[in-house]
Amino acid sequence: MMDGQGSIVVTGGAGFIGSALVRRLVADGADVVNVDSLTYAGNLDSLGATADAPNHHFERVDITDAAAVKRVFEQYRPRAVLHLAAESHVDRSIDGPDAFVQTNVVGTLHLLQAARSHHATLDEAGRAAFRFVHVSTDEVFGSLEDDTARFHTGTPYDPRSPYSASKAGSDHLARAWHHTFRLPVIVTNCSNNYGPYQFPEKLIPLVILSALRGAELPVYGDGSNVRDWIYVDDHVDGLVTALERGSPGGTYLFGGDAERRNIDVVRGICSILDELRPRDEGPYADLIRFVRDRPGHDHRYAIDSSHAREALGWAPRHSFDAGLRATVGWYARPNAWVERVRSGAYRGERLGVSV
Ligand code: NAD
Description:
By secondary structure, this protein is α/β, with parallel strands linked by helices. Helices cover 41% and strands 15% of the residues.
């Protein structure tokens, strides 16, 4: 199926999840047009040899540029879009919300409009086969208490951070383009991803790399916030399955069935590192420091993915313990990707992140 006629546009294909998706699609033989503006979070190193594959075409395009987005559709005439480009870090959305509204809301609008114009030029079979998969987050549903039921496809939206509000806005636009313009849109909402090639501002890589250099391990509040962790390749499987088998207008929720308190994730990383790279000064957990909580920090996210399992025949294949061990091992090995991110060489400058 993936080597079928026509190309697939992936936006954000130089980011964490997008690069995993592009590696997978290109390996499967799909013709992939990777649309990414290469913000601080975009890194073509994450594609490895895939970057040079004949069926990978990189377009450095900012999705807030309507004319450039339109040009991509006219040039490649894709059969599908998987839209992942976004500003994705909650802390950055608190410090500077503007870019989140521009990229996540306005950028999505430009993609939907360009896809709609393109869709109208297709023949009947092309229009029926076309898909626009809009990739979103469980954070749009708000925050759960410890004892409340998990998010499901009927959960009302209740976004509470600038990041989740901008993603919620983009989800509403995507669904409106289905209902109003009959664009074959599919929306997916996924829980927290982890795995190799994640930029080290996010919890798991930040903790691994900080621990390896003996730095303090900051944990927000009392560490009791709960996230439902999914290995990135399981999310990628879900996206490919939604593209292949999802119904236009459908919503699919992906989760890892792995709810963990932040403090337990951090302790888990420390104990894996105690085995892999014992520290003379004592266990890595000695480096844990509780820091002032993030404003408005959502307490718990958790996904009930039974609908996606039944409708798509999808299921996550990695347990959290195995996925975390693989991820810690990847970051702990001598690693050119980590070195180039740490030095800023991947974008020709030095970054102020604490990695
Ligand atoms: P990321 O921050 O690692 O990557 C985002 C990519 O988008 C980068 O390559 C960046 O250069 C690109 N980008 C940003 N602004 C752009 C613009 N204006 N034009 C073109 N490209 C632009 O993000 P990620 O963690 O890989 O997340 C990808 C998508 O999945 C996002 O839409 C996010 O909301 C969603 N999602 C993420 C998670 C998670 O846990 N990381 C969970 C559920 C959903």
